[in-house]
From TrEMBL:
Cofactors (names): Mg(2+)
Keyword Hydrolase annotated: yes
Official protein name in the record: NUDIX hydrolase
Keyword Transmembrane helix: no
Organism, as annotated: Salipaludibacillus neizhouensis
Length: 154
């Protein structure tokens, strides 16, 4: 199995982060909007498509703020993710003004049950994956100088 590229949107508005909501045996969890790059797409095209499919919004893409790798065999979900190696490119994004119907898009993620705004003041209390990125996002919004490449984290 090869390395999969994925583009993710970090959308912060009114001190809240937009996230995809899912549920498993342990309760609710959240993911950044976005998804896998298809052959022939650049990362911006991937992110535009994935945001329309997943959260029903057209976005403006700004800076690349983080790159993280996920090598499944090194993390807590290794039982079912041991073959996964994914590189995620996280871009700061804004929702274009004309969008009014934020919610599940035309092709939501498997198991997606909704879209939610998570308050940054309570951000660390949410099970958002990758979990380590929660602190990086908070620090980025606060204006701290951070590395772009975060390594193999979850």
């Amino acid at each position: 199995m090869g390395i999969r590229n994925s583009a993710k949107a970090v959308i912060v508005q009114d001190d809240k982060l937009l996230a995809i909501k899912k549920q498993d045996k342990d309760g609710y969890y959240f993911l950044l909007p976005g998804g896998g790059q298809e052959h022939g797409e650049n990362l911006h095209q991937t992110l535009q498509r994935e945001c329309i499919e997943g959260i029903n919004v057209d976005i403006e893409i700004a800076d690349l703020i983080f790159i993280r790798e996920y090598i499944g065999k090194n993390h807590e979900h290794f039982e079912f993710d041991s073959e996964v190696h994914q590189t995620e490119y996280m871009f700061l994004c804004k929702i274009k003004e004309e969008n009014k119907e934020i919610g599940n898009g035309i092709v939501p993620d498997d198991g997606q049950i909704g879209v939610e705004w998570l308050p940054l003041s309570e951000f660390l209390n949410y099970r958002l994956y990758p979990q380590t990125v929660r602190k990086y996002i908070i620090d980025y919004i606060a204006g701290k100088d951070l590395p772009v490449y975060l390594g193999d984290i979850n």
